[in-house]
């Protein structure tokens, strides 16, 4: 974006200079004509005729000056933040995060390594129990799919005999129920042990302080991202400004060139008219002198044409 802005700015400044050159050329030609012909030169002075164009050039240059000052501010901020912006990667952000560390000085009876190992064993045991329940679920599905009591149910009279049949059939699920109960009991015990181990771990490794450190580091990254996006918005806004300025200056440059061309045509016409008038005046003077000479010598004047 900055490279494109720089190219657009150079184009705009070049087109402004071309427009100014057209007006300057008209002003020089107008000045030479006035110097040569004096009061006979009736064309509108260049300073008056070109004033709207000079006003627009001045307005555009003022806007470019302000934009240039803003560009410099953006460039300075980018230079100041180059290192921080260059570090806006997932890896760099992760590297800024604090790490959980064992205390340098252990004041209690707990061994940090043993606490971590115990907590890890508890978590692995909980995962194993969860895996076991997955197997139990599959075994239950398989047993249910194989279990077809409909023939026996159809052959059994209704009432108490069917209730007895259902109770008998459900006994097939008792081993699975017992395994699930055993698994849940073990899980409950493990959850209690894991909770205690986790509490010890959090206190020993200062997990709350670690989280606060992570939040502080993340806040710094978020602030850098905010500044990056802010500068990106400034650059995008600057690009839109120069695109719009390029369009209006290009149009004004063409208008200034057309103005100068029209003025040149008018000068040529006015100059031709002055030359015709001068020639007519010279002819009239010559005719007057000849007429006066003819009268003095007694020769009648020629008849009018």
UniProtKB/TrEMBL annotation:
Residues 25-42 have a biased composition (Basic and acidic residues). Residues 19-47 are annotated as: Disordered. One of its GO terms (biological process) is protein transport to vacuole involved in ubiquitin-dependent protein catabolic process via the multivesicular body sorting pathway. Gene3D superfamilies: alix/aip1 like domains. It comes from the Eukaryota. Residues 2-264 form the ALIX V-shaped domain. It holds the Pfam family ALIX_LYPXL_bnd. GO terms for cellular component: endosome. This is ALIX V-shaped domain-containing protein. It comes from Astrephomene gubernaculifera.
